[in-house]
User: What shape does this take?
Amino acid sequence: QLQLQESGPGLVKPSETLSLTCTISGGSISISSHFWGWIRQPPGKGLEWIGDIYYAGSTTYNPSLKSRVTISVDRPKNQFSLKLSSVTAADTAVYYCARLGPGRGGSFDIWGQGTMVTVSS
Amino acid sequence: QSVLTQPPSVSGAPGQRVTISCTGSYSNIVAGYDVHWYQQYPGTAPKLLIYGNTNRPSGVPDRFSGSKSGTSASLAISGLQAEDEADYYCQSYDNSLSGSSVFGTGTKVTVL
Assistant: This one.
């Protein structure tokens, strides 16, 4: 059974870079039909798509975050990662990784449990 | 900056039927892209409830049903139960700019 698990620091200082990793178990990241995405949810607010990546490396980002976001894939480790630069308090949120598909018009069918990231000095 | 609009809240008594709308535009729902629905309890990750407008993943009760027409999609919950009290989000694909996944604004369902 495919499972996803987020990991990374729970506290990041303003202006620094938030870095998270999603580890996939029970399946391969190198699946042709699906993409791998990041979604976040600020406290008490709704879901916001951050971006997604194909196992071969192609990416799509939320236009509102594009200048600060990098998503990458590490196929040997069966992981994909998120970097968000120049963070502010507005980036405080629960960050989820999820599988998207089939195709970019598909659904997020498998989710990680989420990890809370707080931006504070 | 959600491009899919949902009512902030809906409520109903146990056993009743409630519906949640998800209104989009020419670059997402009207363009023919599928709509998917998620259920989220406080402090937990969202769970896929409906995919491809009308399909239920294995294990989702048939009390939940989805539909899509024109500029909007809808999620219906029949025979409302206390355990259905949760937040619900729609999601689709938007082909504006470079293309992206988009979520609805979210709806809180309250069981009276």
